[in-house]
Amino acid sequence: MAGESYETHTYDVVVVGAGGAGLRAGIEAHDKGARTAIICKSLLGKAHTVMAEGGIAAAMGNVWPEDNWKVHFRDTMRGGKLLNNWRMAQIHAQQAPDRVLELEEWGALFDRTDEGLILQRDFGGHRYARLAHVGDRTGLEMIRTLQQRAVALGIDVFMECNIQHLLMNDGRVSGVVGYWRESGDLIVFNCKSVVLATGGSGKCWQVTSNSWEYSGDGMGMAMEVGADLIDMEKVQFHPTGMVWPPSVRGILVTEGVRGDGGTLLNSEGERFMFNYISDFFKAETADNEAEADAWYQDKKNNRRTPDLLPRDEVARAINSEVKAGRGTEHGGVLLDIANRRDAEYIQRRLPSMYHQFKELADVDITKEAMEVGPTCHYIMGGVRVDADTSATTVPGLYAAGEVAGGLHGANRLGGNSLSDLLVFGRIAGASAADYALGAEAAAAADPAEVERLTTLMLEPFTDRGNENPYAIHSDLQRTMHNLVGIIRTESEMLRAMEEIAEYKDRTERVKVEGGRRFNPGWHLALDLRALLGVAESATLSALECKESRGGHTRDDYPDPDPKFGAMNVVTRKQNGTIAVSLEPLPEMPEELKKIVEEQV
Amino acid sequence: MPEAAVAGNGAEAKMRVWRGDASGGEFRDYSVPLEEGMVVLDVIHSIQAMHAGDLAVRWNCKAGKCGSCSAEVNGKPRLMCMTRMNTFEPGETITVSPIKTFPLIRDLVTDVSYNYEKAKSVPPFKPKPKEADGTRRMYQEDIDRVQEFHKCIECFLCQNVCHVIRDHDDNKPSFAGPRFFVRVASLEMHPLDTDDRLEFLRKEAGLGFCNITKCCTEVCPENIKITDNSIIPLKERVVTRFYDPIARLLGALGGKRS
Fold this sequence. Notes:
The complex is a heterodimer of chains A (600) and B (258). By secondary structure, chain A is an alpha/beta fold. Chain A has helices at residues 20-31, 69-79, 86-105, 138-152, 217-224, 256-259, 279-282, 289-295, 311-323, 343-349, 351-361, 416-438, 447-458, 469-483, 490-507, 520-544, 562-565, 590-597; strands at residues 6-10, 13-16, 36-39, 56-57, 120-121, 131-132, 156-158, 161-169, 172-180, 186-190, 193-196, 229-230, 235-242, 263-265, 333-336, 370-379, 382-383, 397-399, 487-488, 553-554, 567-574, 577-584. Chain A folds into two domains: 13-138 and 145-234 and 380-567, 3-Layer(bba) Sandwich (FAD/NAD(P)-binding domain), CATH 3.50.50; 237-375, Flavocytochrome C3, Chain A, domain 1 (Alpha-Beta Complex), CATH 3.90.700. Helices cover 36% and strands 17% of the residues of chain A. The model of chain A has no long low-confidence stretch (mean pLDDT 96). Chain B is α+β, with helices and mostly antiparallel strands and 258 residues long. Chain B is built from eleven helices and seven strands. In chain B, the strands form two sheets. A five-stranded mixed beta sheet of chain B has the order 2-1-5-3-4. In chain B, a hairpin with a 2-residue loop joins strand 6 (104-106) and strand 7 (109-110). In chain B, 46% of the residues are buried. The chains are: A alpha/beta (600), B alpha+beta (258).
């Protein structure tokens, strides 16, 4: 094929992704004086962050003055089953309050305390009410604030532009290649550094709260240029997704429902979470209903309700209840706030949940319980980064937000994602700008390499077979759901590997109908590469990790194993195949160990 | 729900979907299996997977939170993800076409860049100094009305139905549209903001074009009272500033706004 034509742009820093992390990174890089572009594959303001509901975790101490970064750090580490990168968890807990206040400087309006400060709400795994929020639409407030800030600063934004590959020059990143969704025209950016802020990969799984955007493209691109991924087997199944009707299965029901007083019940009406308090959390969890209910008002004299154990614990509990025959008609459990809080309170605190159930399921949550069950929500694993700079293992490449791994360890606490985006988005943007401003001029892209990549992108239009990209995608989602889901076992995962290999083969023969102009079939055909790469990396990591911890549960190795508790599972691509290894976690300093081990 | 009773048992959704681009196109008929609880966007996805892989549609959250999947369903501007199939008569053919006010890109996707250009023109948030103790104090009752405006998911359905631009393309350069009146209201009524956007509203944003027919309010999926709570109060402020002689005199003496 003769070289396809493409347009070329040159910047210091290119940020791929415009959710919370990408926008915050772009703002920081711009403020540092770097010529910065933000590239997003949807319209601006539509990224996954917009769907976040509950809030931003930050130890501001507005509701509970006892709260501080050390308590937040401890909660994050314990919630992550101590597999977290301790330095990331420390930076995150220390800087989150400033990042929230910064949003207020840019126009965000959080719900208020009686004293006029930012109100904070209870959430799973957090000792104190800690989440700054706006009803149950916090992500919308956050993305709109950042979006408007980026626009006010005049940062160049390339919307509906889908980046597919990283360009390398002399061992470091030198640009990105992608296409415009509208026209199908190809586009190349030359730059000195790249921030990946592309989010997660939940679209590998069938029942998910994630949108089409979560195809793991950042992880896929990073892997292609040799970057390390860590802990890809640690996948969070949020305990409460909608289960009925089938068309809404997986849509998120915020943890805020439980934070605001809702409780989980099985079909026998039992508050079953009291039966699932693990030894690890026994000392800090209420063991009776009276204490659990009193905790909402009086945290000094009562322990936390088990309804708000970390998400991995609650998801597994729901899974067990349903398996034991105590589930609802549609295979979920009940989440009841109607009998626990008055209608006015529910509508004020949870307006979009009220709306969502009313519109999509004909359920009035002020009068009836919701039917809920686990849904694939988040991946704790991701691109390995340096805690202080967000630098990946590839020079010039940075990563922040869900695409990066480490902060959340084996399980992420609710509310720690939005704060992650802000804290590490800013750090990644600053580091990428420092790197770019200290580097020589960006090398122009090698035309032969660009041609190789653009040819790859246009391959689905050539006559290679008759495979339907939608069918391959839904087959992959079924495989991952059935064989690499909440509970895993070796034989099933080996079967998943065979099926993934078959899907890779079928993808070589994919056929796309229509032309290049706004063609979702073509877009999906290209997304399959990253989806399959992430699925393979996650499955290989899950096979290697022979223990159960957080978002990785093995039927054949049901207990945590101290050996794996001290290791990251690392995947990296070498000579076209994905290699897996175990590498030791960074050692936590003694004074932080004391904080984590302290009994409350 | 008569339809729900048969959904999943061989029931079919009959759809008539616009296919084409700026150079022309046509409505095409598709049938796909109907399952319980389906929304229009689910059916569009089924058509993609089964009959037309290249059918262009924008969507993200599928839960009414991102405002991407705006279209006209049986001629009514709607979010496809929040339009249940069981709200139609069983067996009825449902027509889905792109929103009308913006140039067509392809199928159900339109060029909404007008809105992103208008967003750039709005003078940004300009906060007053912090309190003496370094905090920002605002009370819930003072921000309730602004939080209503912050619910906007930028689906642009209000822009789509606004007569000022729906039927008069030539008004677009001099009119910002309801979405951006809501945005300006959110800034003007923000307890911390110090900027003044009344001149911008009167001139560049073309607030005077709006003749308060409330079409925008009717289609807002977030139920924001666009006309009553943002446009009318802004109009009152503009009138007071520019057309009330006493207020003009006070303005000249340095008063800004209430």
